[in-house]
Amino acid sequence: MSDSLDAFARDKLADLDAAALRRRLVTTARGPGARAEREGRSLVSFSCNDYLGLAHDPRVIAAATEALARYGAGTGASRLVTGNAPPLVALEERLARHKGKEAALVFGSGYLANLGIVPALVGPGDLILIDELGHSCLFAGARLSGAEVQRFPHNGLEALRAALRARRGAARHVLILTERIFSMDGDRAPLAEILALAAEFDAWTLVDDAHGLGVVEPGARAPLEMGTLSKTLGSYGGYLCAARPVIDLLTSRARSLVYTTGLPPASAAAALAALTIVETEPDWAARPLALARRFTERLGLPAAQSPIVPVLVGAAEAALALSAALEARGFLVVAIRPPTVAPGTARLRVAFSAAHDEAQVDALAAALRDLAPDLVAAA
Ligand SMILES: *Cc1c(COP(=O)(O)O)cnc(C)c1O
What we know:
Blueprint: H1 2-18, E1 28-31, E2 35-38, E3 41-45, H2 58-71, H3 86-99, E4 103-107, H4 110-121, E5 127-131, H5 136-145, E6 148-152, H6 157-167, E7 174-179, H7 191-200, E8 204-208, E9 224-228, E10 238-242, H8 244-253, H9 255-258, H10 265-280, H11 282-299, E11 308-314, H12 316-328, E12 331-332, E13 335-336, E14 346-351, H13 358-371, H14 373-377
Parallel strand pairs: 3-12, 5-6, 5-7, 7-8, 8-9
Antiparallel strand pairs: 1-2, 2-3, 4-10, 9-10, 11-14, 13-14
Helix pairs in contact: 2-10, 3-10, 4-5, 11-13
Bound molecules: pyridoxal-5'-phosphate.
Pyridoxal-5'-phosphate (PLP) is lined by residues 109-111, 135, 137, 179, 183, 208, 210-211, 228, 230, 238.
């Protein structure tokens, strides 16, 4: 009955078109120096999470190339069978040390990590308290777990305390899910305060560090530090750093580890080379945040807390139009629309990279001032 299937898809697409919420894949060839080629044009990209430009670093590429030649393109099986290639093991040791944890576990992606971690730790009878701006994969892992899921207002410490006070007694275990740096807003969670609350109520805390690793001061460390190899580390994959028994449990119980093929050795080797650069080149690692601050200062926006700066537009159509106008001037700044962000909060999400130079940042600020004076002057 593919007629009804096609009709269903066409109806849904018409709804998305009407709301300016349809999404399309655009072929994009990224190059070094924060450049992206789209439809034959070379743009300066402010939409990549490759905050240190490491995806194109010759040392990272060399490490991946060597692992590719030595271990092959893929691991051929689950890590628990024959897929536990040496670069994955070496990377785990280094990630654990970087985070000050006993052990680490590498997953196929950050999304897969959260799908595996959360259901392995909590289930029916347990309670998950999740920041309302948490990433889609935190919500997906929470739902998959079968635990009760309650969201709390973004960074709302009082609401979190109230929820713990009201609900802690009835739940076997409580897991708090938050992010070090929020992916679409660029702000920080008050982690020290959240961890103090967790200690008071014997709750567990997982922090998603996808956007913090290497580019902001980490501050307090949670017992469960998960993240991705796909952003600052310029590669692909995900990880969890935690105490040894937790990692050992997840090795047996995280379904997105047990029932999926180990990530390619070249991806792990690339991430390991990138982590070395993060640790040994602090001046380079400090650049994205410094450039983000330069940008917010130029536009009178609140000072950036991370390399991510949201420029709130409101309506999805208006965000698309502003993005298109910037693209016409040579800047790639992709519009972020619902359901990635709440209705009425469509925005440009500006992401800074160490590979940008000051003149590019200033040029983007000038273009925004010119194209959307109301958005930036009001701040
Ligand atoms: C990107 C992202 C992920 C997913 O990581 P991938 O490795 O891309 O799957 C998870 N959490 C947050 C907050 C992210 O921004």
